[in-house]
Write a structure and sequence with these properties.
By secondary structure, this protein is mainly alpha-helical. The protein has one helix and no strands. Helices cover 76% and strands 0% of the residues.
Length: 29
């Protein structure tokens, strides 16, 4: 269960980073 929480948190973090990259114009891709 703890592992699932970690996976979910990582997934959300990746999504947040993707949004920031989109806002930044994709300069960090």
């Amino acid at each position: 269960r703890s592992n699932d929480f970690t996976k979910a948190a990582a997934k959300q973090a990746m999504a947040a980073v993707a949004e920031l990259e989109k806002i930044a114009g994709g300069t960090l891709v």
